[in-house]
């Protein structure tokens, strides 16, 4: 990471997020201005039928801080992050890369907390709902149990010590992502979150957590489905076998 004010790129995958993306971009720009963050925002849109990409393009026309990457169809969260991170590293020369949901569940105002932790020397920082000071608003009991089960699998099967391994609000040093190697990651969906942490831990990277408040989707419904849950579980077992074969 360079001296002074590092280049930060927030990568946001979208699919039918027109109702949410405008306010999110405005809040990110406001946080960037008030905290002096050298910010770029890269929205990776999977050909949203609701015109999400067109709205982002309007924002991009007004400020060079906003970029848009259009993709031909719905290819998955992990796929979007891999493609977005690759562009951010190669073309935007980002030094810190941040994952963030488009639906309003992650608060831009908490971005400085993640970046502060990076500046302390951590390679990967997870915005955590399950450390002291973290919280969740608006979840049903079923959703809480699903999250608890997913994190239990991550700890027991993948050997992760992170309390909130499934969180999608996190920051990476560019050097950490380069060591992990995006090309080695196989998960195209939500399981991407576990796979990146697995390799970060295995490579001995310094992983930290900082508390966040997670708010259930402001509009529309969750995109988490049975297929994603099965893919996540399958990956956890695959990584468990990998640990057994190469501890």
- Structurally, the number of domains stands at 1
Percent helix: 40-55%
For the secondary structure, the number of strands is: 9
Shape designation: globular
- What summary fits the major beta sheet? 7 strands, mixed
The helix/strand order is EHEHEHEHEEHEHHEEH
Strand order of the largest sheet: 3-2-1-4-7-5-8
What's the architecture in CATH terms? Answer: Alpha-Beta Complex
At the third CATH level, what is the topology name? Spore Coat Polysaccharide Biosynthesis Protein SpsA, Chain A
CATH superfamily: Spore Coat Polysaccharide Biosynthesis Protein SpsA, Chain A
CATH class descriptor name:
Alpha Beta
The computed structural class is alpha/beta
Strand content: 15-25%
Task: Write a concise keyword list for the protein shown above.
single chain; 247 residues; alpha/beta; Spore Coat Polysaccharide Biosynthesis Protein SpsA, Chain A; seven-stranded mixed β-sheet; two-stranded parallel sheet
How would you describe what is shown here?
The strands form two sheets. The chain has a seven-stranded mixed sheet with strand order 3-2-1-4-7-5-8, sandwiched between helices. Helix 1 packs parallel to helix 2 (52-62) and helix 7 (192-202) runs parallel beside helix 8 (226-245). The chain has a single domain (7-245), classed as Spore Coat Polysaccharide Biosynthesis Protein SpsA, Chain A (Alpha-Beta Complex). Helix 2 (52-62) links the parallel strand 2 and strand 3. It has eight helices and nine strands. 43% of the residues lie in helices and 18% in strands. The chain is an alpha/beta fold and 247 residues long. The longest helix has 20 residues, at 226-245. The protein has helices spanning 18-35, 52-62, 77-90, 111-119, 141-156, 174-180, 192-202, 226-245; strands spanning 7-14, 38-45, 66-70, 96-99, 124-128, 135-137, 170-173, 207-211, 213-215.
């Amino acid at each position: 990471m360079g001296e002074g004010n590092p280049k930060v790129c927030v990568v946001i995958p979208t699919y039918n997020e027109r109702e949410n993306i405008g306010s999110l971009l405005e809040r990110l720009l406001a946080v960037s201005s008030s905290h002096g963050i050298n910010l770029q925002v890269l929205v990776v849109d999977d050909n949203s039928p609701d015109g999400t990409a067109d709205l982002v393009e309007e924002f991009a026309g007004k400020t060079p801080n906003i970029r848009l990457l259009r993709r031909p169809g719905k290819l998955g969260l992990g796929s979007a992050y891999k493609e977005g991170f690759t562009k951010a590293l190669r073309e935007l020369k980002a030094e810190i890369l941040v994952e963030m949901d488009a639906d309003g569940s992650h608060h831009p105002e908490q971005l400085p907390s993640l970046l502060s932790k990076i500046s302390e020397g951590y390679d990967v920082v997870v915005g955590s709902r399950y450390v002291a000071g973290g919280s969740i608003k608006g979840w049903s009991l079923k959703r809480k149990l699903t999250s608890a089960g997913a994190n239990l699998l991550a700890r027991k099967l993948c050997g992760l010590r992170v309390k909130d391994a499934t969180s999608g609000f996190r920051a990476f040093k560019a050097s950490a992502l380069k060591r992990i190697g995006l090309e080695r990651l196989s998960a195209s969906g939500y399981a991407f979150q576990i796979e990146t942490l697995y390799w970060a831990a295995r490579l001995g990277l310094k992983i930290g957590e900082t508390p966040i408040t997670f708010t259930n989707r402001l509009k529309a419904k969750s995109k988490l489905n049975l297929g994603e849950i099965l893919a996540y579980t399958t990956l956890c077992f695959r990584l468990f076998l990998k640990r057994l074969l190469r501890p």
